[in-house]
Amino acid sequence: MAQSRDARSAGAITTKEWTLYKEKFLDPSGRIIDNANGKISHSEGQGYGLLLSYLADNRGDFDRIWAFTRTEMLVRNDGLAAWKWDPAAAPHVADTNNASDGDVLIAYGLALAGAAWQRPDLSASARNIAVALAAGGLETVGDLVLLKPGNSGFAASDRKDGPVVNPSYWVFEAFPVLAELVPDGPWREVDDSGKALLAASMKIGVSSLPPDWVSLKAKPRPADGFPQEFSYNAVRIPLYLVRSGNRDRALLEPFMTQMPDQKGRVRIVNIATGQTRQLLDDAGYRIIPALVSCVLDGTPLPDDMRSFTPTDYYPSTLQLLALSYARRHKPDCL
After folding, report:
1. Cα separation of 305 and 286, whole Å?
2. Which residues fall within 8 angstroms of residue 229, CB to CB, at 6 or more apart?
3. Which of 131, 211, 244, 317 has the most Cβ atoms closer than 10 angstroms to its Cβ?
4. Which of 28, 145, 31, 156 is closest to 82 using CA atoms?
5. Nearest residue to 126 (alpha-carbon basis) of 284, 3, 258
6. How do the domains of the chain map onto residue ranges?
7. Distance between the two ends of the chain, CA-based, in angstroms?
8. Which residues are catalytic?
9. What is the DSSP string of 3-58?
10. C-alpha angle with apex 35: 32 to 41, nearest 5 degrees?
């Protein structure tokens, strides 16, 4: 069973690592603070917080994060989370649209913890979110079952270039778990569609790297109104692929060869030209193409990526997800 296999991952983050992470990013109320984004909280961060606290086997912190998420962000009438909670706004939730990656991550974290800790209340909550997302968060285009970035604003009926999707919202490791929770749900189809979408999106530009936002109105192309680049969203795609057990070299290799520069820094890339717009030097970004290189070719992770010192919320989160995977599934990387 998928949940049983994943349950063995509890404890894959060390107590020291989790303590460093929560001291910087976990408010006593249970909200994960995005310190590089106005100290807001968002459903993505709450989902990551649930997943990381599960991987650290810290049940008290997990329950705190879930309590905040449940009471402060699950305020929509459809069972999904509002995407943004702003401490400087009144009310704190000013935009009630959801973000589907946040919903997937929340459901996934709840499902893993529910199975591992024998908590049927968490499993039931995960199931409810998965059912709610399937009911309003998907759109079928041809043979593809697409995960809309949010229930409002991205469908074919919402935009001239719609539907618009974000390939990084496919949390590939989560879908087998959601499919097991809801056997008659669409999650296997969503999983398969995400890989097909990613393969098509990687053909848009000259670098074989996908844009963050993709229009599927006709042939896949960068969506209107967004920077036409491989950027902060898409850098996590290869991490999700690797953590799901994917070893498809055709999908993964461009993230090993095109994503980093010669010094291993992650490139923000202009889709049209393939030129570098910015370089990301944080270990939490650099560890992603390095992990792909280890998975595909056996290259060990550089020493400076193996120890965790929190910087900003997003790269710190990605680094812990990469390290926890390597410890449990690719110890030769370390």
Report:
1. 8
2. 211, 212, 268, 269, 270, 271, 277
3. 211
4. 31
5. 3
6. 2-333
7. 28
8. 44, 101
9. HHHHHTTTT-S-HHHHHHHHHHHB-TTSPBPBTTTTTBEEHHHHHHHHHHHHHTT-
10. 35
For 148-159, the DSSP string reads -SSSSS-STTT-
**Eight-class DSSP state of 273:** T
Cα distance between residue 182 and residue 199, in whole Å:
27
Q: What is the pTM of this model?
A: 0.97
- Say which residues have a Cβ less than 8 Å from residue 196's Cβ, sequence separation at least 6: 143, 144
Map tokens 């499993």 to a residue: 123
Chain CA centroid to CA 333, Å: 22
Task: Give me the pLDDT at residue 4, please.
Answer: 38
Q: What is the CA radius of gyration of the chain?
A: 19
> Tokens 């959601």 — which residue?
178
For the beta sheet containing 164-165, the strands, ordered from the edge strand earlier in sequence to the opposite edge, are 164-165, 214-215, 221-222
- pLDDT, one tens digit per residue, over 178-224 is 999 999 999 999 999 999 999 999 999 999 999 999 999 999 999 99
**Token representation of residue 78:** 């459809």
Residues with Cβ within 8 Å of 181's Cβ and at least 6 positions away in sequence, in order, are 3, 107, 111, 123, 126, 127, 130
What is the structure's pLDDT at 11?
A: 74
Q: CATH number of the domain at 2-333, out of 3.30.450.40, 3.40.50.10580, 2.160.10.10, 1.50.10.10?
A: 1.50.10.10
Residues 37, 42, 48, 50, CA torsion sign: positive
pLDDT at 2 (0 to 100)? 39
At 72, the pLDDT band (50, 70, 90 cuts) reads very high
Cis-peptide into 87, omega within 30 deg: no
Beta strands in 200-275 (DSSP E): 214-215, 221-222, 229-230, 266-270
